[in-house]
Design goal:
The protein has helices at residues 3-11, 31-42, 46-68, 71-88, 99-118, 140-148, 150-156, 162-173, 178-185, 189-213. By secondary structure, the chain is mainly α.
């Protein structure tokens, strides 16, 4: 792993095992600035590599943590994502797709490899509500559904199809936009909107059943 990425990992002031919500200032940078960072990183700029790690590690870790369940596995896989990012930088081309969507595709492939090698299927971790940063462009009613009790939501995820779970995890754990989620899943934006709507409906119904059984 390049020194800049390794150093960023070791010197981070927040621990993904304790609080996987990124500190203020680590949200996505404007795409134009990010393209400049990527070009600098491709040219071997260590500071740019470190900045890409700082900007994206939290959401990559969050997504993987929800997918694999175990904290240590998630940390190892998140590090591997950035190693693969570094190895693939020379071949990366923007083509209108935000860099974080590219990273999440790397993460999704890595998680699939992780389970394929173990002959197992993916599982969803039971995280606390404060571990997930919800995007701010959702219908307030849908956000309330996901904020109500995240442990119950994660249990209710069992009622979703694999693709519906993936869309919800990308939208709410990795904080990807509709367009970015479409890029990662290979679906169009209308498909992603429909999948999100359908999945949230199922979650809403499952949570009502939980409430009914727990007066």
């Amino acid at each position: 792993m390049p020194d800049a990425v390794r150093g960023a990992s070791q010197s981070a002031s927040w621990s993904p095992g304790v609080n996987v919500v990124p500190p203020t200032g680590t949200d996505a940078v404007p795409q134009s600035d990010e393209r400049d960072l990527v070009e600098l990183a491709k040219a071997g700029d260590q500071a740019a590599l470190g900045r890409l790690f700082d900007d994206h590690y939290a959401r990559v870790y969050r997504y993987i943590r929800v997918k694999v369940g175990m904290e240590q596995d998630a940390e190892d896989l998140a590090q591997e994502v950035f190693l693969r990012m570094y190895q693939a930088l020379e071949r990366y081309q923007h083509r209108g797709v935000p860099f974080r969507a590219f990273l999440m595709q790397v993460a999704a492939n890595l998680v699939n490899d992780f389970y394929r090698k173990r002959g197992a299927t993916g599982k969803t971790a039971s995280l606390q509500g404060e571990d997930i940063d919800l995007p701010g462009d959702e219908d307030p009613a849908d956000v309330v559904v996901l904020q109500a009790n995240f442990a119950e939501v994660m249990e209710a995820m069992r009622h979703l199809t694999e693709l519906e779970r993936e869309v919800i995890q990308l939208r709410y754990a990795a904080e990807l936009s509709i367009a970015e989620t479409a890029s990662v899943t290979g679906k169009n934006e209308n498909n992603v909107k429909q999948l999100t709507y359908k999945a949230l409906g199922k979650l809403r119904k499952a949570l009502k059943e939980v409430d009914a059984g727990n007066p």
